[in-house]
What we know:
By secondary structure, this protein is of the alpha/beta class. It is built from twelve helices and twelve strands. Strand 11 (252-255), helix 9 (264-271) and strand 12 (275-278) form a beta-alpha-beta unit.
Amino acid sequence: MKLLMITRKVDINDSRMGFFYQWVRAIGEKVEKLYVITWQKSDRGELPANIEIINLPQNKLLKIISLRFNTLRLLPKIDGIFCHMNPEYTILIAPLPKIFGKKVVSWYTHSAVSFRSRLMEKLTDRILTASKESFLLPSKKVLVTGHGIDTKNFFPIDSAEPLKDNFDLLSVGRISPTKDYESMIKAVNILSDQNIKNVRLKIIGEPALPEQQVYLDSLKQMVKVMKLENQVEFLGSVQNISLRKYFLDADAVINLSGTGSLDKAVLEAMACGRLVLTSNIAFKLILPPELMVEQNQPKALAERIEFLINLSGEKKRQWQNQLRQEVVNNHNLDNLIKKIIEQFS
């Protein structure tokens, strides 16, 4: 089998897209030839020789022309096309695959229903998504596959966890108001006012858009005003391949995302056997209710953090094993790759 993949970027060192390097490698191991067209400049690293990376030009108009040209050039050689995430890829290559009788499979995980996602649904043959909440547009083309977490890279420690004085919280994601970092900081402050001063919060991520830098600056100012400089730390971007260490150092991972789709960082934390607290409704059916919180409720979040601090060791281990097994069973990369390949068989 020979496939064409279209995605934003392939680079193991990229903080946001580094995970997709493993997707590309895993698909490449299952096919004879894999062509990958990337919207942004990529780095093939140590990918196998049967994987060919095609970087598009920097100019936007030339990108579109080059995307269509390369798709047209490769269509006679391939068995199908896998478009990753952005609906524009499926839209821009239409109707070329239909002319050649080649199947298009589109991956999309976002609860927002837009004109672009509606148009993509009309033009693609199949839509793969991580959960039913990740694609809310009614369509017979949708197949819920679970996410693709590399459980060989994200796994728990074998030995007993060391005793420590601090209770360490971690949040991983782009710096955006939709992530409600204010409530996390306020919750730490509430606990500190209650003389629970051993709670530490580390935030990994950077603004995805220039205008979101203002939001990050406001968060840092909030920390300063509340005198939490010794308890809240902004770490900036971290490579995906390096995240496991930070997950294992944390007692709990917090995600207050409002996107409504399964957050990859939460699943990676679960794969590492970490407890999580999330407001994301997509996790409602797979997490114990005690690990679900609401956005913009810092007092309730503080209470839930205190609950985890006082959690018995036995209950903690039970939940850690449960969360890890959920990812292994329903969201591991090997299963997802198998389902992607099956769409073209």
